[in-house]
């Protein structure tokens, strides 16, 4: 009878061990499923963020490249205006400068 009771105890322990193994496996599978889901959600968020940053970059690139043509024209106009102003100033004082140089070159100091 005692051998029978010992046998039943071993059977109960083996059944409890199998049940515990099933619980652990179920928990492990649930954890893996949650991890996969979290990774998929993170990948989606990353893709959305990357697309948003790329769109913003392209927008800024288009703004800056569109302005560069206007900037070049504006700078060319400003440069031409400054060159014209300098030529006008040079022509008005060139006679005075020539006279001053001739005076200094031809004057002899003792």
UniProtKB/TrEMBL annotation:
Keyword Protease: no
GO cellular component, one term: vacuolar proton-transporting V-type ATPase, V1 domain
Record Pfam families: V-ATPase_G (PF03179)
InterPro entries named in the record: V-ATPase_G (IPR005124)
A GO molecular function held by the record: proton-transporting ATPase activity, rotational mechanism
Coiled-coil residue spans: 25-59
Keyword line: Coiled coil, Hydrogen ion transport, Ion transport, Transport
Transferase is among the record's keywords: no
Family: Belongs to the V-ATPase G subunit family.
PANTHER family: V-TYPE PROTON ATPASE SUBUNIT G, VACUOLAR ATP SYNTHASE SUBUNIT G
Entry function: Subunit of the V1 complex of vacuolar(H+)-ATPase (V-ATPase), a multisubunit enzyme composed of a peripheral complex (V1) that hydrolyzes ATP and a membrane integral complex (V0) that translocates protons. V-ATPase is responsible for acidifying and maintaining the pH of intracellular compartments and in some cell types, is targeted to the plasma membrane, where it is responsible for acidifying the extracellular environment. Catalytic subunit of the peripheral V1 complex of vacuolar ATPase (V-ATPase). V-ATPase is responsible for acidifying a variety of intracellular compartments in eukaryotic cells.
Oligomer and partners: V-ATPase is a heteromultimeric enzyme made up of two complexes: the ATP-hydrolytic V1 complex and the proton translocation V0 complex.
NCBIfam families: V_ATP_synt_G (TIGR01147)
Protein name: V-type proton ATPase subunit G
Protein source organism: Salix brachista
